[in-house]
Amino acid sequence: MDLVIILQVIICGLLIGFVLSLIAVGLTLVWGVMDILNFAHGEFLMVAMFSSLLLFTTTGIDPLFSLPITVGLLFLIGLLTFRFVIRPVLGYPGLVALLITFGLSIFIRNVVLFFLGPDFRVINQSILAGKRIILWNLHLSLPQVVTSLGCVLITYLIYLFISKSKFGRALRATALDKDTALLMGINTNRVFALTFALAAACVGAAGGLLVNFWYVFPEVGVTFVILSFVIVAMGGFGNIGGAFLAGILVGLVLNVGGFLVGAEFKYALVFILYLIVIALRPKGLFGW
Amino acid sequence: MKTDRHHIIIFSWLLVFLVIAPLLIRDTQFQHLLIMLMLFATLSQAWNLIGGYAGQVSFGHAAFFGIGAYAAMAPLNHWGLTPWAGMLIGGLVAIALAVIIGFPVFQLKGHYFAISTFAIAEILRELFLSWEWVDGAFGLDAPVLDPGFYNLMFYKTKLPYHYIVLVFFVVMMFLVYRIERSRMGYYFRAIKQSLDAAEALGVNTTKYKLYAMMVSAFFTAICGSVYAQYSLHIEPEMVLSLHISIKIVLVTVLGGAGTLWGPFLGSVILIPLQEYSRIWLGGTGKGIDLIILGALIVVICAFEPGGIVGLFKRFSLRKGKD
Q: What residues of chain B, 285 to 314, have a C-beta less than 8 Å from chain A?
């Protein structure tokens, strides 16, 4: 019996870890290419969740099918954010970019609060809602499983895209050395813009999937963005594989640690894990 | 660059204004504004030392602020100890924490350092949230004691708070002014420019980063104590939250990090904006004040990424050409 509970906790941790990974991958991409920590990343997640939710309540499209719309919307938001918020501060110390995105996050959060109110909402009539998978003695909720697997799949696709495609090569070249990339004929400004939009699309996918089983409210992004900062640092800034593994690790610590030590300390445990990792490897798990 | 004499003249006028203003303008909202303005100017100046001059960006100054706040309030609640002693204890504990985290954390660079300081503040917040001696998430209310200097509590007037904060503000400004011109100030800037180059020139970087952090932590904790005694109620979500850490950074960077006047200018812009938009628009509970604040931060950063100080410098350059 005990074994079942432990297994259950571990699997739930893994499932949430995959979602965290995808969110962190978006953040780490932007960092890797333009040395910017995007504070509004969590608000992008929130907007994506609200987009799915509103599409469901107004037109009845299931979150699973509205996923492309949400991802597209976030891609657009990413492009616009880059053009009007990020580009003016490129070339200035990273701190300025951090603060401008912090201002943006306050702005977006409160605009949503103003128009949609602070209530917690949830979609409980989607296709997946309420269904479960029972494996041996383990009860897994289907929305959670689908969300996590979707997130892993998208993370993998992004990894493929960046390691195999022509744009991915341009992106990695820009991340390594902007000036040289520019000299080689890469339009770095375009790479910046598309990377930022791609990161927003990542979080759009995560949000569109997460809405299947998570509450939606204007502050929802705050916890996620804080966790993804820690994940990104733990995996090594700009390192996609690192962010993926660190995300899983954090998900496990949240659930297993929270179960063993007490839920009120679960975030503290994540931060302690971060400090331990960073004491042993000062540039993250996969940094060099 | 302005000359030293300019700094002193401007500061003297500012000082005259800050001494007289609360006596002339009896509006309590305005007095509150001035107190918060000076408090955040002091806090940000403390942060500026480590984050601006030495270039080690900390997102965890709420840890020191919270330690100061609780060090004043908890002993006062439990033993009736004067907050002045609590303030000193808080300052010393903050220095101790700076030393303890200093050695492991200062080996880290850039954002790894920033996230580490933030992690430490968050761990502290969660511990305080569940710590019964300080009433966990409920927070501490100041006991009702005789108002006066000894208990650092005044109910009817804000003036004593004003002058206490003013003293700390002046001390902080003077200290940074001196450090900026000292050997240590040059070491700090060398560390910011290039850690490796500074090491190669024989600067003991770990030692000087630690000095910057210790001074910064001490004054941040003192501001925390004063804030606790001023608001008479503290709770972890208020004094130990990321919100405080970010606000300190925000004020400094908005004004101009690594400059003497940056923190003050930043709080002159940001604090009235925040306080008045909260007073005028915050009552709706719909966050209009924060929408405006967020938009203004974006606009200021987009048009003046070097901080308000950059604006002044450009202005004085243009004047010089004419």
A: 286-288, 290-291, 293-298, 301-303, 305-306
